[in-house]
Amino acid sequence: MRPLPRQRLLNAALATAFGTAFSLCSVSALAQATGQQQRAGDSTLPAITVNADTEESATGRVNGYLAKRSTAGSKTDTPIVETPQSISVITADRMDAIGATNVKDALGYTPGVSIAPFGADSRYDWISIRGFDGYAPGFYLDGLPLRNNGTWGLWKTENYGSERIEVLRGPTSVLYGMASPGGVVNIASKLPTAEPVREIQLQYGNDARRQVAGDFSGALDSEGKVLYRITGVLRDAQLPGGNSRDDRTYIAPSITWKPSSDTTFTLLAQYQKNRAGSYTRIRPAAGSLTPTRIGTYIPEDLNAGDPNFDHFNQDQKMIGYQLEHRFNDTFTVRQKLRYGKLEVDYRALQSPNFVPMDPANALSTENYRYLNRGVFGSQESTSSVTMDNQLQADLRSGDWRHKVLVGLDYQRTRIDQYTYSSGFGAPLLDIYAPVYGGTIDIPQPYVNGVSRLAQTGIYLQDQIKWGDRWSLTIGGRYDTAQSTNYSRLDGSTQRISEHKFTKRAGLVYLAPNGLAPYLSYSESFAPIGALDPATRTPFKPESGRQYEAGIRYQPPGGKSLYSAAIFDLRRKNYITYDATFMPKQTGEISVRGLELEATTELMPRLNLTASYAYTPRAIVTASSRAEEIGKQAMSVPRNRLSVWADYRFSNGLKVGAGVRFNGSTRGDAEVVAPAKVPSYTLLDAMIGYDIDRWTLALNLRNLTNKTYVANCAYGYCYLGTQRTAVATATYRW
Predict the structure, then answer these.
(1) DSSP string computed for 164-181
(2) Per-residue buried b or exposed e for 441-467, using 16+ beta carbons within 10 Å of the residue's own CB
């Protein structure tokens, strides 16, 4: 790909930086709706006290859009400006403002994140970060992994139960063990609060969406030592096109016990039940990206699956605890533990292809009228135990301060999987007069067995501060991983043991005027869990490494945070397949880019967030197939830009608007050439009104209902999400 001329790049970067610097802010009006307390027996509303810049902890609620602290980049309560790696925090208020109903929507204005690598997809929150899959090996919930093994039994999260979503970009294995080189997503749950929370929320939207949710928290005793919270969602909806359910039941109770000011113990649980169809917008490239040979396109609203056959049913349960005890001013211990159980029953018709009904006549309309669809299904049962133990020592000697973290984490996952797939077995589908139902043949499984993964990691980190200006973070970690795969198909058992040491270092200078330049190096690893068929020895873990340089600007006493980062990221030792389909550990991908992000308050009640990602290089640099070298493994546009702004008038009216631009690509592996996947621009909007205890809002995403191709891969293309409209009414007391 030809790089942009230097002046064009400079102008684009300066324009973006100036535009974001001129306009970003965090909000206080939303805090006014939640900061009220009413004394018992009072007949009038009490006075409201608001501090929009208050942040109780690095995991708790933020009033507005700007989080200044996070644990995602260090596992300790650390200011973001002192974290030597790119990190973004999407607060609950920001999720509400942009109308985000899932993780993908929430990350739509985050630099370096693609929220539509597979277009519209009701099944999962597929994302990619800096050109690498961000959904495998899984998101994190409260710092503990929601581990999956790349199959279809993937954990789901609920935005209404989340206080914030954090994205740490780049390799993160020193903190989190096995991880994608692109970064990790951590979701912080709503936890009990001493301040009462009483909220009921109603939603109504297109696709027959009807949802009721509630959030309640407060103290159970007069001394405030026992706190509770219960959050729940009940949704009755349909998938686009109708005839398929999209229902959810979610409840998350938790209780916190504080026997003293030094000890906190929180017990938390979660249950989620999803009953839905399977909605994707996959199409053959000819008929979606480009016209067929006779100049036709597949109808945009066609359901290429079968609502009578497709379903995606999921049940997941979690229970765990978080314990923190402070011995003295020096030593603090923390322990987190969670047990989870996940059941998935999924089946669908997919991978549609035209069937030539008149092969003797290449231009016959009948050759581009009927689709054949493959039959796919998977039943999976996953159980997992995850634990993280930490000892923190805060030491000081003269101008030197050390925050030393010693940790040991452990995870064990068991997956029982029965999966089948066939390219045939379903009736042909007439794209102009679709008829669903009929006999569908279920093939024999190609996977029927149990896989187990156990990983133990020991890590050490030291955050060193010299005076008030210099901050150095160094860390190292040693992991061991054991995987066992048992197949019921042939009775075989495969056992593999792997180990890996990873390291990380970063330096930050904290200038008095709020500037904070930094440099960092970080690594990642991921067990492969397979044997080399040529040597019968285990493949080495694949690895990642990143060099990053950046600068943040946080004006003292303000409500703004600006950041810029350049990075050089490599994924190494991944498996590629030669011409005989033999696996070889020769793969390497190189990604380089620039990212800009800003969150600020231009003037009172005017908020704006913006991001820009320039990625001139995201290519395969080594492979056992020469034709892959120099091409993109996952599609990454050279330019991606997003801006969101909202304003709250003094009379309670509020309006917001956003734009999301995604540049053109050649799709995954660039196999749809010569046609490019065109760029697209989407508009979002919000209008609302705050009155007394009510908050009303109407959110529209993809305002113009633009039809666009989100991505293409291997002869297929994925259409993006159509317009969604959701009206929300929230009552707090």
Answers:
(1) EEEEEES--HHHHSS--T
(2) eeeebebbbebbbbbbbebebbbbbee
SS3 628: helix
Arithmetic mean of pLDDT, 592-602: 96
Q: Which one, of 98, 34, 86, 99, lies nearest residue 60 by Cα? A: 34
CB 28 within 8 A of CB 575: no
Say how many Å lie between the first and final Cα of the chain, rounded: 56
Q: What is the β-pairing status of strands 183-189 and 140-141? A: parallel
- DSSP β-ladder status, 128-129 and 132-133: antiparallel
Task: Specify which residues 333 forms β-bridges with.
Answer: 325, 391
**Spatial contact of 354 and 370, defined as CB atoms under 8 Å apart:** yes
Spell out the long-range contacts of 350-356 with Cβ–Cβ below 8 A and sequence spacing 24 or more: 350/280, 350/282, 350/304, 350/305, 350/374, 350/376, 351/282, 351/376, 351/423, 351/716, 352/282, 352/283, 352/284, 352/304, 352/429, 353/284, 354/284, 354/286, 354/287, 354/292, 355/428
**Strand (E) or helix (H) holding 20:** helix 6-23
* DSSP-derived secondary structure letter, 190: P
380: pLDDT confidence band, cut at 50, 70 and 90? very high
Element (H, E) at 103: helix 103-106
Q: What is the DSSP string of 419-442?
A: EEEEEEES--EESSS----S--PP
Q: Are 631 and 623 in contact (CB under 8 A)?
A: no
Burial of 131 (0-12, 13-18, 19+ CB in 10 A): buried
User: How far is the C-alpha of 625 from the C-alpha of 82, rounded, in Å?
Assistant: 43
What integer pLDDT is reported at residue 674 of this predicted model?
63
Q: What is the pLDDT of residues 614-650, one digit of tens each?
A: 999 999 999 998 989 999 999 999 999 999 999 999 9
Residue 203: how many other CB atoms lie within 10 Å = 22
β-pairing, 144-145 with 140-141?
antiparallel
Length of the chain: 733
- State pLDDT tens for residues 491-500: 999 999 999 9
Break the chain into its structural domains and give their ranges: 6-732
* Answer CATH for 6-732 from 3.40.47.10, 1.10.490.110, 2.60.120.10, 2.40.170.20: 2.40.170.20
Tell me the per-residue pLDDT of 547-587, one tens digit each, with 9 for 90 and over.
Answer: 999 999 999 988 999 999 999 999 999 999 888 888 989 99
Task: Determine the Cα–Cα distance for residues 706 and 708; give it in Å rounded to an integer.
Answer: 6
Q: Is 187:141 a contact under the CB 8 Å cutoff? A: yes
Say whether the peptide bond before residue 674 is cis (omega within 30 degrees of 0): yes
Contacts 24+ apart (CB under 8 A), 437-446: 437/306, 437/308, 437/309, 440/306, 440/309, 440/349, 440/375, 441/375, 442/375, 442/377, 443/375, 444/420, 445/418, 445/419, 445/420, 445/489, 446/419, 446/420, 446/421
Q: Are 12 and 639 a contacting pair, CB within 8 Å?
A: yes
Which of left, alpha, beta for 65 (phi over 0: left; psi -120 to 50: alpha)?
alpha
CB atoms within 10 A of CB 476: 16
Residue in the structure block whose two tokens are 């796919």:
376
